[in-house]
Amino acid sequence: MATCRVKPVNVLVIYGSRWGGTAEVAKKIGLTLTQEGCTVEVINAKKNPKKLEPYDLFIIGSGMRADKWTKETLVFLEKFLLLF
Ligand SMILES: Cc1cc2nc3c(=O)[nH]c(=O)nc-3n(C[C@H](O)[C@H](O)[C@H](O)COP(=O)(O)O)c2cc1C
Hints:
Blueprint: E1 10-16, H1 21-35, E2 39-44, E3 57-62, H2 71-81
Parallel strand pairs: 1-2, 1-3
Bound molecules: flavin mononucleotide (FMN).
């Protein structure tokens, strides 16, 4: 199993899911990182985080439909993270 090389790391896992598959993957990623010593919050992209400052790492993903991520994940990227 992989090990966090930089600790402690505060991680926000954001997912978009239409049928639940990506939600399960996101929770598994969160559980694995927690077991590795990271502090992790897993949220649906429909729910805005209160603040982004506490996090060192963002992991974002979405299930696909017709080659598209969910609308909420794209809005999340535009609103919060796509600053570069
Ligand atoms: C109607 C429909 C359209 C899909 N379109 C794509 C697609 O364009 N590209 C892709 O890689 N997967 C596609 N998939 C597969 C889904 O992305 C995959 O099942 C994914 O795990 C769904 O995530 P979710 O359960 O979190 O919504 C499609 C699935 C369905 C049911």
